[in-house]
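Re: the request from the purification team.
They wanted to know what the chain is likely to look like in 3D before they choose a buffer screen. I agreed to run a prediction and write the result into the notebook, where they can find it.
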Amino acid sequence: ALELIDFKNALEQFQNLVEKVIIQKTKESSGLCTKDGDEVDYDKFHRTTQTLFGSAVKDQNVQAFFRKIMSNPDERPPWPEIFVFFTEESTGMSSASKESMFFLVSEKQQITHSVVKRKDIIKGIVKVPLLHLTITTSQRGVLTVFNKQRKSFFSYSFYFHQDTTWITGCDFLPNLKYVVAVTESTVILWDYKSKEGKSDGFVIKPMKNCLLCVCTVTMADNLAKDTILMGDDRGYVYLLTITSDDFIMKQSKAEKESQFKVLDSESFDIPKRKLHDDWVGKVKYFSALKCFGSCSTDSINSFVLDDIKRLEDQLPVKEFSVPKGVNAFTYCGKAKVIVTGG
């Protein structure tokens, strides 16, 4: 508690120092500043900041913070920026001591493998902790799997075998061990375990509306099937269950350009329900709550949190409204709160 009080006092003095620098810079820009011996240059700013916070701040962060103030005094940089520092993976949390009361960020790792090409962007990143995998998908259709060392395991460019549809989201099917991705009109199921140069998988099409997001419903009751949620551009949320039998019984001939086999969407039972009056921006299933969540920029039906059974009936759903809607949300199990971002 004493450390917290000391920090708040130091932070208040630091904010006063920043305000003084801003006023000084504003006067200089207006030609009103006169030398009175109390002006704050970088050396004084650095010395005062180090006195207030000690080793919790690094020289390069103080320098960057001061430069931001001087270059644009009207846009005050957020004060947490000055506390961000990196620790080597080998040091561990035990050696952080008092510094951990600020912001601890692990050492950044850069992936040198070129995942996407120019004019392409990453649309989804999914971590699979049990298999130590990270999956990425790009808008133009490059599906990539990385192993624990963050080296490219292998990738498959789905875009080159399809029309100009864009991939809008991805996830991992834990039971069937497939990567699932959605485009504007199809559902892609990629067998990432297939040998490089021989990518196998399935395509479910056509989907009537434009699919915008996808997520896996995590259930361990049946190892031979997986369930996914999808959202589209008309406010519908879909529930699709895929079994290993579907890969055998419903497939048609593989397209010549790839080993991907086509599955007719009409052969699947895909319950759907209109929950929003605008695009569905994100869907997510929370195992701890046994509920799914979906959000939209819809100002009336902005966020829905309920049992997936509600997608198969017409009973009322738990929802709330936010002006201009909700763009993102997540659940914190430790705090037992849902957080939304508009």
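For the purification team: Residues 58 and 85 are 7 Å apart (CA to CA).
Please add any questions underneath this entry.
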